[in-house]
Amino acid sequence: MQPRGAFPWPGVGLAIATALVLVAATGQFLLTCAVLFVWLGTIWLSHWTPPEIQRVTEVEAYDAQRLARLIENSGTPILLTKRSRIIVANKTARKVLGNYVLDQDARVAFRQPGAIKLIDAQANGRTRIRGLARRRDEWLFNRQQLDDDLAVIELINLTSEVDISRAHTDFVANASHELRTPLASIIGYVETLIESEDSITPQKRQKFLGTIQSEAKRLQNLVSDLMSLSRVEAEKHDRPQDTVNLRPLVEKAAGDGAGAERMQRLQLEFSDEPAILGDPRQLEQLVRNLVDNALKYGAHDKPVSVRLDITESGEPRLSVSDQGDGIPAEHIPHLTRRFYRTDPGRSRASGGTGLGLAIVKHIVERHAGRLDIVSQRGQGTTFTVRFPRPAEAAEGS
Ligand code: ADP
Questions:
Q1: Distance, CA 293 to ligand 1 centroid (Å)?
Q2: Pocket flag, ligand 1, residue 293 (CB < 6 Å)
Q3: Would you list the DSSP string of 226-295?
Q4: Phi-psi region of 351 (alpha: psi -120 to 50; beta: other; left: phi over 0)
Q5: Per annotation, catalytic residue among 168, 177, 300, 334
Q6: What's the pTM value of the predicted model, to 2 decimals?
Q7: Closest among 298, 235, 224 to 266, alpha carbons compared
Q8: pLDDT, tens digit, 9 for 90 and up, residues 293-324
Q9: What digits encode the pLDDT tens for the residues 24-48?
């Protein structure tokens, strides 16, 4: 016979003390011994566990402890349940579900019909569950029964996978819409020109042809930006290796971005001549996009300044400032999203594709830099790109 847990000394002590008081008060030694015997016997019986149950409990506790140690540091949330009660939850599971999850009923912890069905049926199976830790997260709930009582529950986070696939779907839908609009317009005007034959005045014909040309150019810009974006994205984990002298590159690219007719609005200020590890073609594109935007959205009678310097902490810094209407604060965090525009009509009218800043963001990320946007309503906007210090860039590459 084996005892269960620590021996109940306080109970035994109380029984003996009571017996001593009883014998002193009554002098009935034999009767007191009988009462003491029954009392101690009850304590002993309640403390004793049959050996077979004792063994199973010890093995279970041992197994559960071993499993708990084994899974504690896994990056996947894993739980062990006994019937439906959670008896082990590793660190990641406690982080996702909260510390109180231990000892809780798994059906209460998960609260989702699919998961509850598997737990109630004590079945092996998987189901998707949503909103476990945050409102929009998505998990695969995988339950495997180990024996009559014990089961393991593993949770696989599908949130980023689902987000990526949603982003891809949105991107395809947006890109198709952007391509369809100029195409529909080109087809419409060409059909009108064909059907009207000679009934259309030369001026009108010229106007239609002009629209067809600008819509075709819009398509061309869009396809070219889509290709740039996919190239930059494909290379995003490749740290650039070429040493690039920024001053001549910025000078040339800013001029290209402005074009001959807007050149006089450009003010270049170079206080330093930083060199970075970079991809010259992508850096040129970054400068062109920022300068083109500043000239497009800045006040047309005001200059755009392009500054290049090195910060006090040694980071090469490029900033492009305009004196336009500025950007409302609520739009700023979204500007680098593909096809995001604060004013779609104005963007399209000026030949914008809505992809320029998305491309800039990816180029900055590939160069391990940082993009900051500061804007004041009615005063203008400054886009600043900070590149890593040359020593840090060399370490990171
Ligand atoms: P777009 O081809 O439309 O110019 P971008 O990705 O380059 O696309 O820019 C996204 C949006 O950000 C623009 O449509 C515009 O609304 C806003 N934006 C970008 N640069 C500026 C700026 N310098 N001043 C004001 N708004 C800007």
A1: 6
A2: yes
A3: HHHHHHHHHTTTS---EEEEHHHHHHHHHHHHH-GGGGGGEEEEES---EEEE-HHHHHHHHHHHHHHHH
A4: left
A5: 177
A6: 0.70
A7: 298
A8: 999 999 999 999 999 999 999 999 999 999 99
A9: 888 888 888 888 888 887 777 766 6
